[in-house]
Amino acid sequence: MSKKSIIFADIIKKAKMVDGVCPHCAEHTLLISIVNDFYRCLNCGGDIEQKVNGKISYLPIDLMVEQITDNRG
Fold first, then answer.
1. Confidence of residue 73 (pLDDT cuts 50, 70, 90)
2. Is the whole-model pTM more than 0.70?
3. What is the full DSSP assignment across 11-37?
């Protein structure tokens, strides 16, 4: 087994799947996480952050990067 295959297998073993309602598409679907507290909807592909404060809530994440322009004269 190659080193790349071993790394990929470790990532798959650590992945978590939960079911919930996606705030992007409002569908009850599976959410998959490779890193802690960040999930992706398998229905629409929306990125979601999981918040736990007495109850589990899924909040949409906007991954758009804003371009900053330099307005110095």
1. low
2. no
3. HHHH-EEEEEE-TTT--EEEEEESSTT
